[in-house]
Amino acid sequence: MLTCSFCFLISVSVLDTNSVGTFGTCLLGFYQLFQIMEVSSEISSAESTSPSASASVPPSLRDGEQYHVFISYSSTDYQWTHALIDQLESCGLQACYHERDFTPGRTVLENMSDCINESQKVLLVLSAEFLRSRWCLLEANMSLFRDCLERKPIIPVMLEPDVSVPLHLCHLTYLEVSDPAFLKKLLRVLCTPNQQLQGSTVVPFQPPSIYNGKALQPLTAVNEEGLNKWDCGQFSDMEVPDQLRLVIEDINRYREAVRIINNIALWKKDDMKYILRELQKAIGQANVILSEEKVLMGCRSNSKIHLVYVSLDGCKQKFAETFGEDGGAEEMFQRAVLFFSCGYACCLGKRHFPFPQSASVGHMEGKVCFCQYVSQQLSRGEWN
Fold first, then answer.
1. Long-range contacts of residues 323-327, Cβ cutoff 8 Å, at least 24 apart
2. Among residues 218, 247, 236, which one has the least CA distance to residue 305?
3. What does the mean pLDDT of the chain come to?
4. Which of 193, 183, 154 is nearest to 39 (CA)?
5. Which residues pair with 298 in a beta bridge?
6. How far apart are CA 275 and CA 127, in angstroms?
7. What is the reported pLDDT for 173?
8. Record's InterPro entries (predicted)?
9. pTM, full prediction
10. 123 within 8 A of 69, measured Cβ to Cβ
11. When comparing pLDDT for 291 and 18, which is higher?
């Protein structure tokens, strides 16, 4: 492995900026760190003090519409949600929710699909329990809802702090219940006609580039409870977890990657740093496989694996342009994934990179691309 590392460093070092062109700015030491951009709120608060001010007039219901908003929530959040529904309906909005408006004798999926179609907008009350139940149901049947959801503005409401926003919602503007102007902002968007919201950050299913670099919910070892700090966690390969169902196309790739991690052979079980290094090496091998699915793994502990959705296509193309087909471009790229992808995934997942910001442009809008990370780590003499 040291030999491979040395060869990779020499191969990169001998390149001059004339031979690499644009790639030189990414890979050969021009420092880059875009500030990770949080979704900024695009819903301005109403200036009036009353939630039912004249500015918040419900839009007219058109043919085929029965409700202004369909509200999906977990039963554990019933009390808070119904207090909100009472406030919305007191302002003249027609709300739809499952206890009252689902048709008996029909499946939950059929009812949800019909209610979304008959509503102008969709409001999701995001909590840990919602992500475990309702959102998993939506994700597992996304093909059923995609056609109707892509035509409906979605308003994610953060009921609990630090909830991991699902991948296909992470680019949307969300409202926080803790915000003193929460109700005013919510009424403003609910009372704005849909055609005026086109192109805003409440319209879902934007191009995949919007999701690039987003962290997913991490994988937790199945043996986390009772796991000794000198052992490696074991991760389930029975099925693709919920947070990856819409990302992973080839389940066999995922299983192969997880089995690489689960089959680590440890020789020094009393050395925690050694164990973590071995786990990171195995994750690098797994990432060679998973990068084809636009997923990378990373780890900083023996029981949890970070997951990020990230396309390396632009960086891979720069390797090809730099090294050429006959110059071992594919081998160089695979070697970079092997050595650097685990650390890169951790940095993306934690939204923190261990080097200063630069103004050079990479292959990921607003974030550090993979070849920029490789360049920085090489310049620092780091190999992870």
1. 323/11
2. 218
3. 76
4. 154
5. 306
6. 35
7. 73
8. TIR_dom, Toll_tir_struct_dom_sf
9. 0.55
10. yes
11. 291
**Token pair 């990179």 in the structure block, residue:** 353
Q: Which two structure tokens, joined as six digits, stand for 112?
A: 């949800």
Res. 266: pLDDT tops 90: no
Tokens of 243: 């947070």
Residue 247 contacts residue 167 (beta carbons within 8 Å): yes
Q: Which residues, 6 or more positions from 152, have their beta carbon under 8 angstroms from its beta carbon?
A: 116, 119, 120, 121, 122, 194, 204
Say if CB 348 and CB 215 are below 8 A apart: yes
Residue 371 in tokens: 């070849």
What are the boundaries of each domain within the chain? 67-196, 208-380
- Give the pLDDT confidence of 73-111 residue by residue, as tens digits: 988 899 999 999 999 999 999 999 999 999 998 888 788
Contacts with 18 (C-beta within 8 Å, 6 or more apart), sequence order: none
**Which pair of tokens denotes residue 252?**
């066999």
- The model's pLDDT over 288-340, given as tens digits with 9 standing for 90+, comes to 999 998 899 999 888 999 888 888 988 998 888 888 767 688 889 999 999 99
* Architecture label for domain 67-196: 3-Layer(aba) Sandwich (3.40)
Find out whether 103 and 111 touch, Cβ atoms under 8 Å.
yes
Higher pLDDT, 145 or 303: 303
Query: Helix 2-13 vs helix 329-350: angle between axes, to the nearest 10 degrees?
Result: 100
pLDDT of residue 6: 31
